[in-house]
Amino acid sequence: MAEKLRLKIITPEKLVFDGEVEELVAPGQMGEFGVLPGHVPFLSVLFPGRLRFRTEESGENTLIIHGGLADVKDDTVSILTDKSEKPEEVDVATARKDAEAFQKELDELQDAEPSQIEELDKRLRITRARAGE
Amino acid sequence: MPSLKQITTKIKSVRSTRRIMGAMKLIAAVRLQKAQAALMAYRPYSDAYREVVLNVSALSESDDHPLLRVPEEKTNLHVLFFTSDRGLCGSFNSALIRNMQGYIKEQKEVFGNIKLSFVGRRGRDYFSKNGVQTGKYYSGVNERNSRKFSEELAMALTEEFRSGESDEIVLAYNHFISAISQKMTFERLLPLSTQKTDDGGGESSSDYIFEPEKERIIGSILPKYVQVRIERAMNESLTSEHAARMTAMENATSNADEVIAKLTLLFNKTRQAIITTELMDIVNGTEAQRKGGNE
What we know:
The structure holds two protein chains of two kinds.
Chain A: E1 5-10, E2 15-21, E3 23-28, E4 31-35, E5 42-46, E6 49-55, E7 59-65, E8 68-73, E9 76-80, E10 84-85, H1 92-108, H2 114-131
Parallel strand pairs in A: 1-9
Antiparallel strand pairs in A: 1-2, 3-4, 3-6, 5-8, 6-7, 7-10, 8-9
Chain B: H1 4-58, E1 76-82, H2 92-108, E2 113-119, H3 121-127, E3 133-138, H4 146-163, E4 168-178, E5 181-190, E6 209-211, H5 214-294
Parallel strand pairs in B: 1-2, 1-4, 2-3
Antiparallel strand pairs in B: 4-5
Helix pairs in contact in B: 1-5, 4-5
């Protein structure tokens, strides 16, 4: 069993992170899950949320990811996401306001298309993750 | 022999053309740089996506999801053909079209019916006059709107495949290798190959954990995968186009330089000839006068 996990976070715009981590926690669709070295092959669809990982050099790291998927195989974790942001770069107050607005919109939404609800739900989750809720 | 005036006019016009081509070269170079950076960033993402999808589809049966379906008969082939909207990019489009013709000929042996859809005006302009069945047509694709276009296309194409209207969908585009080299590529988009990989790595469906269950994962990542592949092809094609245009304009600029040099030489020679003739006239004239004065 390898001691470390290799984590790759890839977005269409750039390779956000490629390095060794000791552990990571990701927002899976079926709930948050943690990955340690020696994990069995695993594929999960991710919700927008906060991805946390620990490296030897920089300790705890958090990234906001906009959904995507996680592929765990041979101690390599590939996170493919549309977009990722650093929490310190986010304007929390605006994100909170946006989250409230989306929540309200979602509550008021009636007999809409499932895809429309899904889209709005995704946006809500993104803003919530950005607001740190 | 042309007059001096004619030559100067010619030189002037070549100079101004050269200036335009030089500017176009610079523009293409800047756009190439940008497109190339975007492409290089996009490649790891789409490659990783491809790997995941191939992995999953290798662990799946063809009836797990409509997009994994392997059609029993190969009747309808749909090719999405990427060219540029505008010319002045050397042999970029003509080479693509030539390869495409060969490909159509080849595939006619296999498929009963071949349909072409286009991204870029040049390809459509050519094939719409050539008796090939044509489908959708998109123009005005650039680096900023490729996401939107690819989403639209992906939706239409997956639907077509799902409904059985097309049995195979192929992307035909220029693969960007370097600023001076691009390679035309035909890539099968759908159906995904469900063949197991050769390395026979002991992975089997039971070893892999899927969350949520496999069918739902496939349902959510396959359509996205199609979009990612199309966007990748768009980026490859755009980058290649800028590279081709830059090279073409560079060649044109140096050609113009050559022409200008030749014309300048001609101008000097002509001027010299005129001066010589004039001198001869003067000398002859004075000679004649002198002789006349003596008598």
